[in-house]
Task: structure prediction
Amino acid sequence: MRIGIVGAGAIGMLFGGYLSKHGHDITFLVRNKNIEQLYIQQENLSEPEPIKCQIVSSIATMNQMELIIVAVKYHHLSSLKKDLDSLPREIPLMFIQNGLLHIQFIDTLKQSNIILGSVLHGATKSNPATVQHLGVGVTSIGIYKGKWTSLEQFLHSNIENFPIQYSQNIYQILFKKALLNSLINPLTTIAHVQNGELIKNESYKEILRSIYEEILEAFVECKELLSWEEVVSLCQNTEKNYSSMLKDYQSGRIMEVETIVGAILREAENRNKALPILNTFYLLLKEMNKAGE
Result:
């Protein structure tokens, strides 16, 4: 397939690196015109490998793509609307943002076929042109609007270390991931610790459990959707990782506070429920976020 990827962040590069290994024709749309080659460093491998791809700086070069993956963060989406609207309506767009607010943006687009994705891989950029794969997860995708004739072909892109699965209820998966991010990201960012410290340190673990309990009270369906054991397991499996929110803060970038934590708070408010602990974290993170603006 001819696949375009908008954005060369860690997750976009991860997609490009593995999909190119499967034989797809990959084109990256990037803002940095100085980047001539992108690299992926797979887990447990010492040397980065070049990603077989083209690198372009104009959306017009993507008019013949069979799929375009939009891999920028939520707060960059609005600046892309004009470019995305200029594409042929029939080209399927796949959005792989964190949180939930990007769905509101998607509803403003003219595209006929929209796919949503949820990514559970661990990845970080060691430099502007290299992504490090820190932990294997699952990519879940689901059709949000329209149809996708190449769905089965894309699902066959499953390769070692990059599993892909289809979900009939992709919104539920996005919501669950937003809940997990709301549990882990704010606390690790404010405490400046790796994920594993949230269960090793008794004080952090007590705070984490308190946020989890108030989420259960607001969203009763989470008792089946997200167990406490699963939260602990995620912290264990990613114990050496720094959350994406903490990495953004340390790098002086805008953190995804609104689309992750803010979206969960608004959903609770819609149910006439309060999340006082998470709201306190949200207010603190909003102040911290001003450093990245």
User: Anything to note?
Assistant: The domain at 2-168 is CATH 3.40.50.720 (Rossmann fold).
